[in-house]
Amino acid sequence: MKNEFEIKDLNLFYGDFQALKNLSLDIETNKVTALIGPSGCGKSTFLRTLNRMNDLIDSCKISGDINFDNNDIYAAEYDVIYLRTNVGMVFQKPNPFPMTIYDNVAYGPRCQGIKDKRILDKIVENSLKSAALWDEVQDRLKKSAMGLSGGQQQRLCIARAIAMEPKVILMDEPTSSLDPISTQKIENLIDELKKDYTIIIVTHSMQQAARISDSTVFFLLGEIIESGDTKTIFSNPSDKRTEDYITGRFG
Length: 251
Known about the structure:
By secondary structure, this protein is of the alpha/beta class. It has a domain at about 5-95 and about 165-245: Rossmann fold (3-Layer(aba) Sandwich). The chain is built from ten helices and ten strands. It has helices at about 45-50, 80-85, 100-110, 115-130, 135, 150-160, 180-195, 205-210, 230-235, 240-245, and strands at about 5-15, 15-30, 30-35, 60-70, 70, 85-90, 170, 200, 215-220, 225-230. It has a six-stranded mixed β-sheet, with helices on both faces. The chain has a four-stranded antiparallel β-sheet with strand order 2-1-4-5, covered by helices on one side. The radius of gyration is 18 Å and the shape is globular.
């Protein structure tokens, strides 16, 4: 059992407000880990610590350790570009770039200096196939990504993340703005992707967490109340607050 991330005594402040409190957690490689809990409990804030997106917020202060590849990602000498290449992100609302479908997927590899069209063609095709989108768009790669449906746009954003060949894909409520059919496609895709990637997903849907995740972490008011095997958390939680949240008594 290998861990992708090892988090120890993580605290995060926005100014004087403490958003995350003494979090310690191991995230296993090639597993789907679901982060659940009511709005404002720290799930998305925690997710953004894993690729240092909180660096963009001036008032944000962080203490504790997050180890990735046996290196502390918050160490002064740590290469943030290496981190963000290896830890991709898919957001709540699909956010394709206003360019062609092809250029969306090729954007990251081009930024890394890949100019050879044959290599880019292969990366684009493989990434779109991995995101279960190739069959739907192979005849319109030169058309604008903005013409795709919401569900297709979200799969394109997943393809864009995959094109960088990351080890981890972070997903912040990736299906919350999608219809049930598109949601099912993304869930099926996540199940396929965990063969090659470690996936950490924030979700408001208990049913989704139960369906797609191997491990579940329950957050409440910036703390981890309980974490472990998804089946155990949902069928036999050890903390009353976890049970109350899962059964819909609050949140």
